[in-house]
Design goal:
By secondary structure, the chain is an alpha/beta fold. It folds into 2 domains: 68-80 and 344-445, Aspartate Aminotransferase, domain 1, CATH 3.90.1150.10; 82-339, Type I PLP-dependent aspartate aminotransferase-like (Major domain) (Aspartate Aminotransferase, domain 2), CATH 3.40.640.10. The protein is 36% helix and 16% strand. The strands form 5 sheets. It has a 7-stranded mixed sheet, sandwiched between helices. Helix 6 packs parallel to helix 11, helix 7 (135-150) crosses helix 8 (163-174) and helix 11 (330-366) packs across helix 13. The longest helix is centred in the last third of the chain and has 37 residues, at 330-366. The radius of gyration is 24 Å and the shape is globular.
Length: 446
């Protein structure tokens, strides 16, 4: 198949079809300060010269490879073993697509089956699917699944769910005129008194995130008891890395548990691609979106892997499909599977614990700096926490010049977070790293 580039006439036809006059009009919604006007590719150059220019442009990006990162807020800087990249790049994995023909896709199906098995064990819940786009869409799909199970149209959400997850849920539900409301927060945690008022027998599900948007660990046992007093389903979004040291959703009776698997061997990569986790109790498996891989034996007693419960619109259910999620994040799933198998149970526990210890040491050191206010220090947290720094923009910029990505500025999510910074740490940040960071920060703030 030949590659036929589009010409000027083709581009004009496409622009006309979209009712815009130029490519610039097409991207006018992008803020000017985010557009790189300096970089350009010279015309009529050789392939070697093109590669040189492309690398030069790419070098303008600054990320965790060149800077020490304390950024989190949903995407975290964990160590990724080099073996993952080498295995993923094997052609039988790298070029594989959705395994529709199970009989010729046994390797891919086995990997997915192993992923499902490990995720189910981690979350303490019966069934896992073969992954989803990301943790946000997994949470929104869980809301739809709960409504399908209960035949109710009201969703109640914790106000301390990540704002981006809220936006995705809003997109899913608003277009279908589905009622949803938020439970208030109190001192950085879910207000259980408000929860009792809002979750009732008309509620399809209650959705909570732990650690929550601010990094604090919710009292899941108490929340579970309140929700279970009604007939609502209990949906939990939990960081899988925290499961090395925190209770799994299955232990506090979650019906559906989801999460973002980026922390399991997937690069931050400037924000994506990501990998959604979706688990549920066995009795709800037929309502689960996405695909599930099962294990069976053939007529000779040999193990075989098959796709099962394929209730998606391009297969048997059409308009009655459980979801419009038609794919799994295959390569990202493979990365996470290899990561978990390389670490094993003990290694996973160690990474989870070291991430928490690193973050707690970091907060202790920050607490010694007079101009930094630790927000809600009485709350338990896992590996990230909020602080308040006066003149944050200047401090953040200066620290960036010194080679540190301090964290995520929370004001982008609302004016109530002015001068607040969400700081995360992982097993990659040693005491020596943190001491360097603190020393630089003292120099900038003084």
């Amino acid at each position: 198949m030949k590659y036929i580039p589009s010409g000027d006439d083709d581009r004009k036809k496409m622009l006309n079809q979209m009712n815009v006059k130029s490519f610039e009009d097409l991207i006018k919604h992008i803020p000017e300060n985010l557009k790189n006007r300096k970089s350009h590719i010279d015309k009529g150059i050789s392939e070697y010269e093109l590669m040189k220019q492309a690398k030069k442009i790419a070098a303008e990006n600054r990320g965790t490879a060149s800077m020490m990162s304390f950024m989190g807020c949903g995407v975290y800087d964990h160590y990724i073993p080099p073996a993952i990249r080498h295995i993923v790049l094997r052609p039988e994995f790298y070029t594989a697509y959705t395994p529709y023909q199970a009989e010729v896709s046994q390797g891919t199906l086995q990997v997915i089956y192993e992923f499902q098995s490990m995720i189910s064990e981690m979350y303490g819940i019966d069934v896992s699917n073969a992954s989803m786009y990301d943790g946000s869409t997994a949470t929104a799909e869980a809301c739809h699944m709960a409504m399908d199970i209960t035949r109710k149209k009201k969703i109640v959400l914790s106000d301390l769910i990540h704002p981006i997850i809220k936006e995705v849920i809003n997109t899913y539900l608003t277009g279908q005129n589905i009622e949803y409301q938020f439970v208030k927060s109190k001192n950085g945690l879910l207000d259980t008194d408000d929860l009792r008022k809002k979750v009732d027998n008309e509620t399809a599900a209650f959705v909570v995130q732990t650690p929550n948007f601010l990094g604090f660990i919710e009292n899941m046992d108490e929340v579970s008891v309140i929700v279970k007093e009604t007939k609502a389903l209990f949906i939990v979004n939990q960081n899988p890395m925290s499961l090395g040291i925190l209770k799994s959703p299955g232990f506090y009776n979650a019906d559906i548990a989801v999460g973002e698997a980026q922390v399991l061997g997937i690069s931050q990569a400037f924000g994506g691609p990501l990998l959604g986790i979706f688990t549920c109790r066995k009795e709800y498996a037929r309502k689960m979106p996405g695909r599930i891989i099962g294990k069976t034996t053939d007529t000779k007693g040999r193990n075989g892997y098959v796709m099962t419960m394929q209730t998606r619109e391009q297969h048997i259910r059409r308009e009655k499909a459980t979801s419009n999620i038609c794919t799994n994040e295959g390569l990202c799933l493979l990365m996470s599977t290899i990561y978990l198998e390389l670490l094993g149970k003990n290694g996973f526990y160690q990474v989870s614990k070291d991430s928490a210890l690193s973050a707690h040491y970091l907060r202790e050191q920050l607490n010694e700096i007079e101009d930094i206010e630790i927000m809600l220090p009485e709350n338990d947290f896992y590996n990230e926490f909020p602080v308040k720094i006066s003149n944050l923009e200047k401090v953040y910029s200066s620290m960036k010049d010194n080679g540190f990505l301090m964290g995520v500025k929370l004001e982008r999510f609302g004016d109530e977070y002015k001068d607040m910074l969400l700081i995360a740490s992982t097993e990659k940040r040693s005491k020596e790293d943190i001491n360097k960071f603190i020393k630089a920060l003292r120099g900038v703030i003084k």
